[in-house]
Amino acid sequence: MPYFLLRLRHRRASFPFDADAAEKAAMAAHSAFWLTQTERGRALAVGPVFDPAGAWGMALVEVADDDEARDLLSKDPVIEADLGFTYEVLPVPSLLLRRSLSGVSEDV
Fold it and tell me: Is residue 75 part of a domain?
């Protein structure tokens, strides 16, 4: 199954350091949503990236195709809240995974 990097950005470069109450609530729901996706095995890794140019969020997902990736992110509460967040969907054509993440036996 293909992998995709989903990059979440906010229109304000100062986010999340100046988040308002609505954004904080949406981010709490966002975290719960992505925790569920990791438990279901769709997301391999999710978290914030503190880039000097502005923080952004990343999710590395394993889904069937670009459409499934876009469908998944459209259900993210921060997108549904319409608070200025956007996603980029970036294909990852090749990925080396630590054995414990790839499902390959450690004895191989």
Answer: yes
